């Protein structure tokens, strides 16, 4: 089997690593350069999409912000999974919100803003405080504003207006501010035949808007709610592949924040913690193979490596620790790799993460230090 991935980053790389044992070969299409790249060696294998589409058995994507003409070209081949509609839904917060409503899953109250008058209507409809997010192109908390008092509306409007006018079809989605206790996410897979399976929920910690730490959790009541919402969203989209749902946990009630029509950073722990990792299950789903078990084999926590390209050797020397580098050039704040930490029991996992705070700097790994100070 030959799978073409739209996008040539770390997610395509990890699909390639997971696909090899199943004889599934991955090529990656770099949307920016138009080159076809080997996702592990970065070797250029060709140019242009048309030829790569013809050679592929299946086409999938590692991110949702893909130009629509490329999506349509792939969709026409009949090989694109998940379909263009699902990918576009994840890339446009207006469409995403409409989908969540259609699927009947709880999400934060919202209002779409195109003009200054809309902004006033949003304040009346959604209330203050509110979170404002660009409809297109946002990720890692970028393209967002917070409004804490009506008096500040005039101050932030020029920036919002600039964002709306900077690109075609752009808008801002105003959302009520959700006073959540914590953020969790559910990663699951749905096959071509409608078969689906989800992993245990992940609890996520963000630092400056970027995911920094994600741990499998055992929370049966939340898991049940999340599963029901996953099924509703995946079925509504007639989804094929791995899909992630991000939630706010508000006193034991889940609200969907957003969806990601792809393998997800909060599912990286499945590489060491689950029977079949999310990358393999995504490939199984889009290639029409049976899904692998999503069972937890041991509690696992993923720590993102942000803006660093070396780690103390103690990490590899620690039992249960695995490093996954992405082979990227160092840049401040960039996702360079992750560490998966596993243990037989949650208490043991907590102990190991706390011990990592002794060897990882607080500057580069604030979430590990935050975790350690909360679990002392
Ligand atoms: P990512 O790519 O990391 O998922 P994103 O840019 O797609 O981020 P969101 O997930 O929508 O954006 O928001 C980033 C973070 O901002 C959330 O994880 C959450 O911490 C906070 N946030 C977003 N929406 C709200 C809200 N309505 N109320 C409170 N906090 C929010
Ligand atoms: Mg998010």
From TrEMBL:
Its EC number is 6.3.4.18. Residues 97-287 form the ATP-grasp domain. ATP binds at residues 93, 133, 138-144, 175-178, 183, 206, 257-258. Pathway: Purine metabolism; IMP biosynthesis via de novo pathway; 5-amino-1-(5-phospho-D-ribosyl)imidazole-4-carboxylate from 5-amino-1-(5-phospho-D-ribosyl)imidazole (N5-CAIR route): step 1/2. One of its GO terms (biological process) is 'de novo' IMP biosynthetic process. It is an enzyme of class 6 (ligase). One of its GO terms (cellular component) is cytosol. SUPFAM superfamilies: Glutathione synthetase ATP-binding domain-like, PreATP-grasp domain, Rudiment single hybrid motif. InterPro entries: ATP-grasp, ATP-grasp_carboxylate-amine, ATP_grasp_subdomain_1, PreATP-grasp_dom_sf, PurK, PurK_C, PurT/PurK_preATP-grasp, Rudment_hybrid_motif. It catalyses: 5-amino-1-(5-phospho-beta-D-ribosyl)imidazole + hydrogencarbonate + ATP = 5-carboxyamino-1-(5-phospho-D-ribosyl)imidazole + ADP + phosphate + 2 H(+). Keywords: ATP-binding, Ligase, Nucleotide-binding, Purine biosynthesis. One of its GO terms (molecular function) is ATP binding. Belongs to the PurK/PurT family. Catalyzes the ATP-dependent conversion of 5-aminoimidazole ribonucleotide (AIR) and HCO(3)(-) to N5-carboxyaminoimidazole ribonucleotide (N5-CAIR). Catalyzes the ATP-dependent conversion of 5-aminoimidazole ribonucleotide (AIR) and HCO(3)- to N5-carboxyaminoimidazole ribonucleotide (N5-CAIR). Homodimer. This is N5-carboxyaminoimidazole ribonucleotide synthase. It comes from Vibrio ruber (strain DSM 16370 / JCM 11486 / BCRC 17186 / CECT 7878 / LMG 23124 / VR1). The gene is purK.
